[in-house]
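Colleagues,

For the teaching module next term, I've prepared a clean inverse folding example: a structure given as tokens, and then the sequence designed for it. I'd like students to try predicting residues themselves before seeing the answer, so please don't circulate the second half yet.
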């Protein structure tokens, strides 16, 4: 009993430490050495969650812990480049780990090359072993593709080896790589801050239901619990499509956290934004720079132009995740007349006087979508009062007409969100195509044929994932008639 109590207290101390480190990281006051240690802790924690979920249980419903461990290790070897990217961005800020980071950077081509080769070979060996020694049971991911038990013929063994290998690689590309790059690097600190603010708000309203101990666990496990639930969707045939579409909509949600939160709170990940270049100023900085020498009425109008732009971009980035959540939980999400009017007027201002510019990332080292900020400009020669006036009239019209035309307005909200989603994924998809084709071309020219094959395989899986995932997401909206959940 005493030992359990000590371990429980140790867990509390570790969780408190992680929360504090993420808060300091969010405000960009965390030393590079401690930030590096925090990243390692985050990777380890997510790897441990994956170990607890058991990949072999997900794939075969037949748990093999040794295969789980080796598969996770091989996955980590394939993302060794993340450590190199982290080291290269802030090498001069290290003190304790300076020599270690310098060694990594000086030997980065060799380390990245051999980590990719060893990790890929290990996955192939594990695929062969799994096909021979692990029986397929239902419900499981492999049972969707193959029959139960072991293959009956040599040909079927060969087919199963190829299938298991492709599934292992696909899980890395679709789930592991995405989660490790975003949840453990780019948005880990903002997620903790969101959890902290969320639970503090709950505590203020219902302080008698929560004590300090339960609050610490809820905040500390906020990201991990989400990761566990996401992984669990790949266990069953009835939820696998929802899991794949969920990975797609997460792109927009993570970009909302990566870009919009730093734009609001000014504090941002120096490593991440340094790679993106210019054009990523905080909203407050832009606003204060634009209101200089403007009359009070224009300053007042410009404030609401910025505010409505913010609401508009958050609507477009977060709404697909809300659709996905409704499809997953079947819960209602009622939109009042005020919310409908606010959404329509925000979209209007977002189009007429944009503050945000959405484009494809063109840097050779990173892929994805870039959300830049710039001074609000409009077709009325910077007369922001008229923009705000039009938005207000539009808000009133939608507000009073929503009683009679509510269903049509809900349709319009869903349709606009789906159109933006499709455009956003198109930008991400094309960025990914250019990123991988450039790498494959370089590797092929330099005679790295094995690596060329693996990156071609990664590209093929990504193409299938983005096309199929987008279709599945739109199909979920149509099939489950999500508009009814808003009425």
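(Answer key — instructors only)
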């Amino acid at each position: 009993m005493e030992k359990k109590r000590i371990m429980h207290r140790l867990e509390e101390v570790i969780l408190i430490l992680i929360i504090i480190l993420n808060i300091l990281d969010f405000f960009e006051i965390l030393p590079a050495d401690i930030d590096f240690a925090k990243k390692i802790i985050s990777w380890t924690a997510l790897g441990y969650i994956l170990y607890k979920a058991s990949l072999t249980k997900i794939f075969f419903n037949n748990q093999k812990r040794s295969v789980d461990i080796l598969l996770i290790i091989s996955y980590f070897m394939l993302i060794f480049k993340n450590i190199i990217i982290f080291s290269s961005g802030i090498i001069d800020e290290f003190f304790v780990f300076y020599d270690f980071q310098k060694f990594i950077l000086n030997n980065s081509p060799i380390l990245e090359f051999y980590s990719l080769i060893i990790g890929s070979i290990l996955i192939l060996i594990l695929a062969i072993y799994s096909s021979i020694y692990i029986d397929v049971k239902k419900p499981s991911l492999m049972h969707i593709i193959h029959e139960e038990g072991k293959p009956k013929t040599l040909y079927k063994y060969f087919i199963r080896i190829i299938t298991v290998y492709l599934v292992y690689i696909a899980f890395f590309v679709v789930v592991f790589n995405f989660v490790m790059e975003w949840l453990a690097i780019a948005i880990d600190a903002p997620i903790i801050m969101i959890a902290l603010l969320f639970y503090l708000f709950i505590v203020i309203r219902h302080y008698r239901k929560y004590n300090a101990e339960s609050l610490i666990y809820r905040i500390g496990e906020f990201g991990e619990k989400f990761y566990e639930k996401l992984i669990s969707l790949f266990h069953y045939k009835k939820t696998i499509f929802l899991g794949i579409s969920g990975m797609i909509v997460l792109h927009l949600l993570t970009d909302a956290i990566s870009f919009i939160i730093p734009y609001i709170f000014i504090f941002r990940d120096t490593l991440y934004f340094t790679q993106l270049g210019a054009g990523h100023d905080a909203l407050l900085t832009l606003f204060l720079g634009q209101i200089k020498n403007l009359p009070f009425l224009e300053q007042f109008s410009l404030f609401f132009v910025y505010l409505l732009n913010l609401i508009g971009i958050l609507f477009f980035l977060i709404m697909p995740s809300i659709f996905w959540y409704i499809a997953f939980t079947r819960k209602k999400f009622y939109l009042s007349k005020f919310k409908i009017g606010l959404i329509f007027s925000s979209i209007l201002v977002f189009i007429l006087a944009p503050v945000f510019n959405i484009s494809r990332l063109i840097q050779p080292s990173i892929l994805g979508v870039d959300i830049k900020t710039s001074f609000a400009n409009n077709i009325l020669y910077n007369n922001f009062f008229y923009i705000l006036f039009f938005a207000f009239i539009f808000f009133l019209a939608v507000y009073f007409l929503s009683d009679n035309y509510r269903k049509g307005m809900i349709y319009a909200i869903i349709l606009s969100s789906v159109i933006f989603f499709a455009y956003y994924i198109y930008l991400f998809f094309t960025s990914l195509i250019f990123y991988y084709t450039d790498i494959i071309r370089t590797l092929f020219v330099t005679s790295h044929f094995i690596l060329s094959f693996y990156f071609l395989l990664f590209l093929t899986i990504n193409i299938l994932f983005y096309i199929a995932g987008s279709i599945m997401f739109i199909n979920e909206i149509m099939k489950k008639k999500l508009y009814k959940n808003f009425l």
